[in-house]
């Protein structure tokens, strides 16, 4: 049976709101009281105005906290927040980076530890927080993230793929890559036989995104990959990547 908010034990919810525990499920993440967590993490900021209401969606709440914290305490507080025991607080740190006046290389350098965070939720916030910057400079983002595809960490290899998906999840689309997904091949080619399923799933989802606008490109790419890289990993990526147009 799927977990419900009411299934969370009161002591567990208290720990999440106090910032002393990490969320283990999406339900737990969504159940966190951001105002209570902020009071626990930075009681000195409680009286400051925050232009977001509790009823807004989770991504808007996370983004608003990032803007708020950047304005009130600045990037000098980033290391402490990025190392906080709470995954939600580390997510706020990612959104501080997204809201800061940094060039794209500096943003990627700053977010790298969060993109490699042990917590999968933080890794999602890391790319979502930078999505607007990637939208504004898509080609430059591809250039900067291409070396990440050779990183020993599967988390960072996956970040390169997930952050540049043409459509993505909970995020703005990337029109350049929807029109011309071949521009993203510098990211995809090194990952076509990646041994990590975490990375494989992201690459497959990238292709599936592109296939909704450019099925011709997706079919041609996978046909070539299957010829040039007859591995189980590549076969799995292509099967999942073409799932929409082959259904």
Overall domain count: 2
Q: If you compute it from the alpha carbons, what radius of gyration comes out, rounded to the nearest whole angstrom?
A: 19 Å
User: Which band does the percent of strand residues land in?
Assistant: under 5%
Query: Which bin fits the share of residues in helices?
Result: 55-70%
Outline, from the CA principal axes?
globular
Plain-language structure description:
The chain has helices spanning 10-18, 26-31, 34-41, 58-73, 78-82, 87-99, 104-115, 120-129, 131-136, 138-145, 154-162, 175-179, 185-188, 197-211, 215-228, 232-241. It is an all-alpha fold and 247 residues long. It has two domains: 1-129, no CATH class; 138-247, ARM repeat domains (Serine Threonine Protein Phosphatase 5, Tetratricopeptide repeat). Helix 4 (58-73) packs across helix 6 (87-99) and helix 11 (154-162) runs parallel beside helix 14 (197-211). The radius of gyration is 19 Å and the shape is globular. The mean pLDDT is 93.
How would you summarize the topology of this molecule?
Blueprint: H1 10-18, H2 26-31, H3 34-41, H4 58-73, H5 78-82, H6 87-99, H7 104-115, H8 120-129, H9 131-136, H10 138-145, H11 154-162, H12 175-179, H13 185-188, H14 197-211, H15 215-228, H16 232-241
Helix pairs in contact: 4-6, 6-7, 6-8, 7-8, 11-14, 14-15, 14-16, 15-16
């Amino acid at each position: 049976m799927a977990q419900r908010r009411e299934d969370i034990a009161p002591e567990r919810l208290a720990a999440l709101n106090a910032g002393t525990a990490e969320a283990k499920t999406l339900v737990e993440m969504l159940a966190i009281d951001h105002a209570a967590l902020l009071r626990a993490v930075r009681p000195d900021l409680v009286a400051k105005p925050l232009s977001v209401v509790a009823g807004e969606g989770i991504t808007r709440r996370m983004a608003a906290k990032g803007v708020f914290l950047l304005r009130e305490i600045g990037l000098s507080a980033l290391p402490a927040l990025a190392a906080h025991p709470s995954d939600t607080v580390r997510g706020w740190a990612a959104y501080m980076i997204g809201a800061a006046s940094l060039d794209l290389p500096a943003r990627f350098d700053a977010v790298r530890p969060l993109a490699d965070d042990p917590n999968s939720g933080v890794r999602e916030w890391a790319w979502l927080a930078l999505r607007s910057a990637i939208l504004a400079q898509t080609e430059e983002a591809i250039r900067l993230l291409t070396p990440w595809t050779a990183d020993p960490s599967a988390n960072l290899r996956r970040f390169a793929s997930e952050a540049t998906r043409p459509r993505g999840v909970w995020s703005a689309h990337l029109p350049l890559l929807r029109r011309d997904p071949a521009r993203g091949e510098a990211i995809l080619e090194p990952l076509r036989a990646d041994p990590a399923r975490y990375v494989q799933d992201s690459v497959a989802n990238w292709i599936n995104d592109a296939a909704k606008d450019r099925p011709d490109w997706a079919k041609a790419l996978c046909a070539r990959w299957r010829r040039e890289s007859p591995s189980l990993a590549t076969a799995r990526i292509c099967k999942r990547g073409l799932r929409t147009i082959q259904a």
